[in-house]
Amino acid sequence: EYDGERNSEGERHGRGKARLPNGDTYDGEYEHGFRSGRGTYRFRNGACYMGEYLQNKKHGQGIFFYPDGSKYKGDWVNDQRHGYGEYTYANGDTYTGEWFNHNRHGQGTYVYKDTGSKYVGGWVDGNQEGEAELIHLNHRFKGKFWNGNPVGRGKYVFDIGCEQHGEYIESEQDKGEEEEEEPSLLIAPKWKASEITKLTLWTPHGENPPSP
Questions:
Q1: Which stretches does the entry tag as region Disordered (predicted)?
Q2: Which of 7, 131, 187, 190 is the most buried (most CB within 10 A)?
Q3: Measured on CA atoms in the order 81, 84, 90, 91, is the torsion positive or negative?
Q4: Per-residue pLDDT tens digits for 173-204
Q5: What is the domain range of residue 111?
């Protein structure tokens, strides 16, 4: 069903309301038969998109409310979360930063609601990867991440004014038999501390830490 403006060719053009065969509804702007411009699309499952369209695709600025209570507010390209945006998850966690092809990708900040901790740094295809800082209540970790885990050299900075340098190494089980690939993925890397120093300038590119 469609109730709204049409052009001389009879295409939906201008403002209108539509009810789709699957029960979804759209209230907004059309151009030459396509949803284009601003509009609100309500899904039968309870989800809702309010924002910009281009030729039936979410494109531009928009807010998407998901059925589980989570929401995304930000840039869309060709129906995908793409550009810059903020996602609030059902558990209250938030991610604010760059998106690429529907995934967290680039630089972004993830805040864990339960602990107040936050990850500030790189993302690749939805995973924590690259140089980053993991900030907790009274200390922080600076280093590199891969696939959601810290790897290699890094340091913990404590609010009392000191730092612990060291590196994350794969635990011993990882280096054993190659037969069982899967279980090794569950083993978190181990922190191996090297020295404690006063506060220093440091980057994940490496440096010579001062003597303790």
A1: 1-27, 168-187
A2: 131
A3: positive
A4: 544 444 444 545 567 889 999 999 998 775 55
A5: 91-173+187-201
